[in-house]
Design the sequence.
């Protein structure tokens, strides 16, 4: 069993990946924060159901994913965040444009592709971990990654041709 202090440490350790997971689904800071808050409450309430602390990361991300999807199902309005790309000052202008174009393209992917691409490439999660989080099979994740990459190529190619 995980103690209250250990739970808090895990939450602090995974707060960034929880935010990225929720934001990739909801595309809104406020809604992502709501989903994370609800997920933390549910996780703490069901802490006794967690048998192995080694799987805490995938367990909490699954709860965050479910809460984010639940918010969408409630038809809660989802608004765009205008500047979601985090760029360091050391980047040159070309790299900034490339990063923003790619980030915008990923944000414009439909679900579930946006979440799978975000978790795989930005959080370096394995296909098995993503399958556990999203409640699908690793084969489904593999197909979604492939389709998501094709969509990104098409979106970025079209954007390049329109310049």
Sequence:
């Amino acid at each position: 069993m995980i103690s209250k202090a250990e739970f808090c440490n895990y939450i602090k350790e995974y707060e960034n990946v929880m935010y990225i997971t929720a934001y990739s689904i909801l595309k809104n800071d406020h809604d992502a924060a709501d989903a994370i808050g609800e997920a933390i409450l549910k996780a703490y309430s069901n802490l006794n159901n967690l048998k192995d602390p080694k799987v805490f990361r995938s367990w909490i991300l699954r709860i965050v994913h479910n809460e984010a999807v639940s918010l969408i199902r409630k038809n809660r309005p989802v608004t765009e965040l205008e500047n979601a790309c985090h760029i360091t000052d050391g980047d040159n202008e070309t790299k900034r444009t490339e990063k923003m174009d790619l980030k915008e393209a990923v944000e414009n992917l439909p679900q579930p592709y946006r979440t799978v691409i975000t978790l795989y490439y930005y959080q370096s999660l394995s296909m098995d971990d993503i399958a556990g989080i999203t409640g699908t099979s690793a084969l489904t994740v593999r197909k979604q990654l492939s389709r998501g990459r094709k969509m990104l190529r098409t979106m970025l190619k079209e954007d390049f041709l329109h310049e």
User: Anything to note?
Assistant: DSSP finds seven helices and no strands in the chain. The chain has two domains: 1-80, 91-163.
